[in-house]
């Protein structure tokens, strides 16, 4: 997942609710210039409109919004939460890994979901990510896991 940079990772993060969790993960993309604040608002609005569909597996959410003018580049961010956050997903709450991604077009949008899904199917990698104690360690786990999915 080449779109993930070290400055797009935050660990031992805390959030009071799912909105704050999305905001924190989305801000990693905003700070690097990948998206504008409007994109983060779109991610939150998407969940408000459609429910917690972004919670795709136990403890894992993939936040995103439709490609639009608030996306400046394809990018991926990850916030690892110290205390899991409720997203109101019956099957998969609470969430401790929130990935946020931005894509400039539908094709790159689908490719990023596919790459991320391949990584997340590896339970060992996901557990290692949950236990990462530094940003560097989290980055290495994702980079290493990505090598097998190229």
What does this 3D model show about the protein?
With 150 residues, the protein is α/β, with parallel strands linked by helices. Helices cover 43% and strands 24% of the residues. The longest helix is centred in the last third of the chain and has 15 residues, at 106-120. The radius of gyration is 14 Å and the shape is globular.
**Beta-strand proportion:** 15-25%
Cα radius of gyration in angstroms? 14 Å
The biggest beta sheet, please?
Answer: 5 strands, mixed
Provide mean pLDDT, rounded. 91
How helical, in percent, are the residues? 40-55%
Distance between the termini: 9 Å
Number of strands: 5
Side by side, the strands of the main sheet go: 1-4-5-3-2
Give the assembly state of these chains: single chain
What overall geometry do the principal axes of the alpha carbons give?
Answer: globular
| Helix/strand/pairing category | alpha/beta
Q: Tally the helices: what do you get?
A: 5
> Could you name the ranges where pLDDT drops below 50 across 5 or more consecutive residues?
none
Order of helices and strands: EHHEEEEHHH
Pick out its properties:
globular, alpha/beta, 5-stranded mixed beta sheet, 150 residues, 5 strands, 5 helices, 24% strand
Question: Could you outline the blueprint of secondary structure elements for this entry?
Answer:
Elements: E1 4-13, H1 18-31, H2 37-50, E2 55-57, E3 60-63, E4 75-85, E5 95-102, H3 106-120, H4 123-130, H5 135-147
Parallel strand pairs: 1-4, 3-5
Antiparallel strand pairs: 2-3, 4-5
Helix pairs in contact: 1-2, 4-5
């Amino acid at each position: 997942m080449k779109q993930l940079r070290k400055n797009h990772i935050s660990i031992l993060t805390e959030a009071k609710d799912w909105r704050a969790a999305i905001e924190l993960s989305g801000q990693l993309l905003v700070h690097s210039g990948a998206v504008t604040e409007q994109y983060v608002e779109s991610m939150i609005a998407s969940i408000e409109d459609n429910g917690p569909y972004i919670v795709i597996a136990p403890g894992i959410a993939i936040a995103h919004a439709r490609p639009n003018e608030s996306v400046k580049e394809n990018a991926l961010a990850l916030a690892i939460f110290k205390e899991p956050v409720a997203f109101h997903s019956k099957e998969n709450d609470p969430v401790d890994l929130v990935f946020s991604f931005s894509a400039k077009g539908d094709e790159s949008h689908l490719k990023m979901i596919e790459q991320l899904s391949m990584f997340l199917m590896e339970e060992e990698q996901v557990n290692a990510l949950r236990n990462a104690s530094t940003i560097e360690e989290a980055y290495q786990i994702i980079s290493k896991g990505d090598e097998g999915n190229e």
